[in-house]
Amino acid sequence: MTTDSATPPAPGPGSALALIDDALARPFPAGEESEDNGVRSSGPGHHLLILRASRDFWDDRSLETVEPAEQEIEEEFSLLASALSERWGEPETVELWPYLEEDGPTPEPVSQLSNLAGSMQVWRLPDRGGRWLGLAVGQADPEFPIWLLAAVGEDSVLPG
């Protein structure tokens, strides 16, 4: 997932909720088909969205630069998680690091998420066709932006 061809939305839970609602309503691509517009990637059984991105840290990885960016993304995460919990109740925490240790292939979007974040908050949405919604904060490498991520996937991908 890249951010070259599109820009994540402006801050605020309202715009993020609109993107999430769109992803929940959007069908998954069929077969081996996949899409990536830089802010949303989709494939069989999943959508992954960058809801918010900090600046990158290629030129400056000092604490004075990184900490405010982390705090801003974490605050947005908390606001959005609260709004989602009002809709669907308290989420469960799913640890993502164990997926990195699995021998076989990990299904998407969990494979991408496990390379970006250590855990995610998950709401299971049986009224949405057996889908789940995940919310995480992740970063590909220390030089890259910090991302607020949302994922929509099929229930069969997650244990429990």
The helix/strand series, from N terminus to C terminus, equals HEEEHEHHEEE
Largest sheet descriptor: 7 strands, antiparallel
Q: How many discrete structural domains?
A: 1
Number of helical regions? 4
Task: Work out the helicity level.
Answer: 25-40%
* Shape category: globular
Tell me the span between the first and last alpha carbons: 27 Å
Q: Which stretches are poorly predicted, pLDDT < 50 over at least 5 residues?
A: 2-6
Taking all Cα atoms into account, the compactness measure Rg is 15 Å
User: Which strand order does the major sheet show?
Assistant: 1-2-3-7-6-5-4
Helix-strand category: alpha+beta
| Strand-residue proportion | 25-35%
Count of distinct strands: 7
Region (Disordered): 23-45
Word description of this protein:
- The protein has one domain (about 15-155).
- About 30% of the residues lie in helices and about 25% in strands.
- It has four helices and seven strands, in the order αβββαβααβββ.
- The chain has helices at about 15-25, 65-90, 95-100, 110-115; strands at about 35, 40-45, 45-55, 90-95, 120-125, 130-140, 145-155.
- A seven-stranded antiparallel β-sheet has the order 1-2-3-7-6-5-4.
- A hairpin with a 5-residue loop joins strand 5 and strand 6.
- The longest helix is centred in the middle third of the chain and has 26 residues, at about 65-90.
- Residues about 1-5 have low confidence and may be disordered.
Sequence-ordered SSE layout with sheet pairings:
Layout: H1 13-25, E1 35-36, E2 40-43, E3 46-53, H2 63-88, E4 92-95, H3 97-100, H4 110-114, E5 119-125, E6 131-138, E7 147-154
Antiparallel strand pairs: 1-2, 2-3, 3-7, 4-5, 5-6, 6-7
